Each structure stands twice: as structure tokens, then as C-alpha cells.
Amino acid sequence: MSLKQSIVNQWYQRSPGMLRLLTPLSWLVEKRVAKRFSQRQLGLVNGVPVIVIGNISVGGTGKTPLIGSLIAHFQAKNLRVGVITRGYGGALSGQQVVKVNSDHTATEVGDEPLIHLCRGAAVFLCTQRAKAAELASRECDIILADDGLQHYSLVRTIEVCVLDGDRGLGNGHLLPVGPLREPASRLDSCDIAVVNHGEQILAEKSIAHHAEFAMKVAPGELRSVRDNGVAVQPANRVTLVSGIGNPARFEDTVNSLGIEWDQHIRFGDHHAYRAFDFDEAESQVLMTEKDAVKVASMAPASSLYITIKAELSSDFYTQLDALLNHKQQEFS
Questions:
Q1: From the CB of residue 207, how many other CB atoms can be counted at a distance below 10 Å?
Q2: Predicted model pTM
Q3: 215 in Cβ contact with 197 (< 8 Å)
Q4: What is the tally of structural domains in the chain?
Q5: Looking at the domain assignment, is residue 5 inside a domain?
Q6: Cα angle 56-62-63, degrees, rounded to a multiple of 5
Q7: Are residues 73 and 174 in the same domain?
Q8: Is residue 235 part of a domain?
């Protein structure tokens, strides 16, 4: 087991164990976080609302499928949806705003931006979220900020915090002793909490006068990595290949579909794939949608991926719409 994985495992134990020795570093993180939070601004960007979808812990919590669901929700209202993102791992990620198009590759812009683009959103890339929002506001009716909770230079209208229902808040400590980017008390200032997969985390805690909602990430269709065509379920065992924040959840998804697999080749989150990464695959490859957008030209021809969708109650959308309407009136 690598040192990194050992630390992550300790984050999700009840006690931080030896990581307690790093407590002085957590104090510094807490001080810096408090200073940055004091700069948070609420409002609209050129009259356009901004919904931030983020988390307070490191690793994947399910933001991407939630954003996909919100894109579809607002498109159904005939709104032009923009997504602003850093484009983590993309070569074009920098201080200049890049509008993503179908000619861009995951190497250039990262994986999530291409997924959002495929869902029909206008996608704007920049390490400075505020600059991306400024450009997006010129051609969009609503802006979704992918992982922007801690980017306090970005004016935001609504904050949605996505929580991992399986892992919860880990040992409850700030980095590097625990997995938290911000203290758990940060949830008090968020408008809505969404718990992805698992039991409610904050059932006894008020989230800025609004509710905590359960979300289930459900599998959609099997598709071909090469051409995105709909595929049939494999007749034989497959090899799982993933480079995501929570690979165990991918395994659960595959199992729920009744697909048998014989090995799981795991890479780190946002892995930059190379052709030889598939050399150890002993059977047909099955991937996540997030991984598939990176490897169309290099994965074995028979490779498949699973589309995903976020399932939330109608109450979530009702309350979100009501809150959005209220905030727009308040800030106009």
C-alpha cells in the first residue's frame, strides 16, 4: 500500500492515529480558510445567477452527475446553461478563459468539461472562476460552477454542497490530519446539502434554512468507447479500468448491473491515460464515462463505458427553483 493510500485510509477511520502529529498544519489550514471565507460574496454576475456545486472534502463526491442533472433541469426550462470549471489536469487550464468545443481533447481541457459539453452546456475553462463566470454571463441564462465552493473571488447566488454518504466527513479533521478542505461548520453557510449514496449525514442539522437531500447515482446505458454507440451487456467477464476518486463505487455500479468482472485496474483520480495502460487487461474493458472521454483513440476497440445519471426527489428541484427565484429577487 502506498503512503498516499495509507493516509487516505486513516482519514476515514474514527481516529486520525499518527496523523495527529500533523495537527499544527491543520491549524494553519483553518486560519487560512477562515481568512478566505471572510471574502465570500453573494449575488449575481451581470444579472445572471451562479449556482456553486462543490464539497468540503477532497476526492470525488458525485458533483459531475449532479451537474448533469441540473443541466437537463434548466434546459427543460429553455434556459441557456453555462458551466464554469478549472479543467483540472488539462493543458489549457490557466488564467485565460477557454470556451470548450468538440475539437478539444481531455488532455487539453480535462475530462469533466467534455462530459458537460456532451450534455449540451456551454463550458468555460479558467483557474480564475470569476473570469470564466464573467464571460459565461454574456451568453448564458444560468451558470453552474463545478467545484467552486472554496473559490471566494467568485460571486455566487446559491451554494450546493455534495457529501459522500458512504464516507461522510471522515475523521472530521482538516487537511492534512483529515480529508476536510474546510471545517464541518462551513455547511451552516451552504444553501443546500446533497448526500450522494448512503444515509443522511446532517439529519439533525439545519443547512441555511433548507433541507438535506439524498441523491442516488444510477447507471444508465452501456456505450462503446470508440463511437458512443449503444452496446449490449457483455456475455463474459470484463476488466474494469478506472481513474476516479472512488473506484469502489464503480465496482458497486457494475455489480448492480449483473456484469461479472475478473480484475480492476485502478489509476489515480484524473489519470492521464496512455495506450499501454490497457496492456494488462485480460478481457473486454469496461470504464466510467469520465474515463471514456479520454481514451477513444487508444482503448481496445471493444471497450465499453457506463453512462450515469443522478436521481433526486422532485422536492429537491422544487426547493432549488424556489430558492433561486427568491435569491434573484433579493440580489436584483
A1: 20
A2: 0.86
A3: yes
A4: 2
A5: no
A6: 70
A7: yes
A8: yes
